[in-house]
Amino acid sequence: MNRNRAYIRYTQAVIISVFLVILAGGIVRTTQSGMGCPDWPRCFGRWIPPVNAGQLPPDYEKYLSAQDIDHTFNAWHTWIEWINRLCTGLLGLLIIGYVCWSYKKFYRLRPAIFWLSVSMLAITGMEAWLGKLVVNSNLGIFKITGHMLLALALAAIPVRILALLDKRQKIRKRSLKWISAAAMILLLIQVILGTDVRQQIDQVSKSLDYTHRELWISRLNVVFDIHRSFSWIVALACGFLYWKVSQLKGSGILKRPATAGLVLVVLLMALGMVMAFCNVPAWVQPLHLLCSSMLVMVLFSFRLRLS
Ligand code: HEM
């Protein structure tokens, strides 16, 4: 494999790892494992968490009493949370390797690529700091939204680097630039609305002791209705982009992201409806989150293919 190709493959692996970390975070939440490790960066004061209550440190109550959570030890929750942290750690290592490689390969020739990779390191540091805040403050809404937006920024950087390395001719089309920018803004609004709905689900589910899923949707406020209806506007924007691209001759490099955008938005709406009409199945929640993150990246990549 030539070295440029290998670097591109590594960049793609970084993007996939970011999505895996997003998915792992979603699974942590739907299994209510978020506080499985009540302290950070260690777990019950240990680097490898306990597998049963007998292995807990004598003063383990001090970790639990700092949080508003159940005081019974649950090994399942602890390990899910710990694996999630492990995935995040591995992504961190991948990013360090990325920065070193980018330095070696591009620092002199194309410094922008090197500095973009460095900014991933900075965002990862901010995520870790925010992660600590989330643990310490019992998951506040602003921190959850901030966490989500930083995760999207993290995935956006390697997407941007791929675009910089893409030698294919970009498409010059003013109207598509405007429509894709508008679609991105609408989508980001929808993501922020979604994180509010998610916060409400967190509160409702907790108040019902994570049971009676059939009641969760009925207890959401008007933001849920807005989120549901707004998805039609996002879908229209994605559909319009797809239609414009299909009308345009020589728009080969736009076809893939335009199609992926349309497929993802339809999938997202279907998953949303499954949550709304089938009592919020736990497996759908992380998928809804993953697909929305992917849609943001797909639209971003679309935009980067326009000159
Ligand atoms: C363009 C389409 C959509 C996008 C981009 C989108 C995006 C999002 C995002 C980013 C979240 C936050 C997820 C999290 O932080 O875990 C969310 C949550 C949610 N969305 Fe959507 N959504 C869309 C359509 C819909 C539709 C059509 C419905 C319902 C009919 C819906 C129902 C929900 C529900 C119930 C939640 C809370 C999920 C949870 O607690 O895990 N969404 N959405």
Q: In sequence order, what are the helices and strands, one letter per element?
A: HHHHHHHHH
Instruction: Kindly estimate the percentage of residues that lie in beta strands according to DSSP.
Output: under 5%
Q: Which ligands are bound?
A: protoporphyrin IX containing FE
Radius of gyration over alpha carbons? 21 Å
Strand count, sense and barrel status of the largest sheet are: none
Large-scale geometry: flat
How far is the first residue's CA from the last residue's CA? 29 Å
Q: Give the helix/strand class.
A: mainly alpha
Number of helices: 9
Could you estimate the helical fraction of the residues in percent?
over 70%
Provide the residue-averaged pLDDT: 90
The total strand number stands at 0
Low-pLDDT segments = none
Number of separate structural domains: 2
Structure report:
Helix content is 73%, strand content 0%. It is an all-alpha fold. The protein has 2 domains: 1-167, no CATH class; 170-307, no CATH class. The longest helix is centred in the middle third of the chain and has 34 residues, at 174-207. The model has no long low-confidence stretch (mean pLDDT 90). It binds protoporphyrin IX containing FE (HEM). Protoporphyrin IX containing FE binds next to helix 6, helix 7, helix 8 and helix 9.
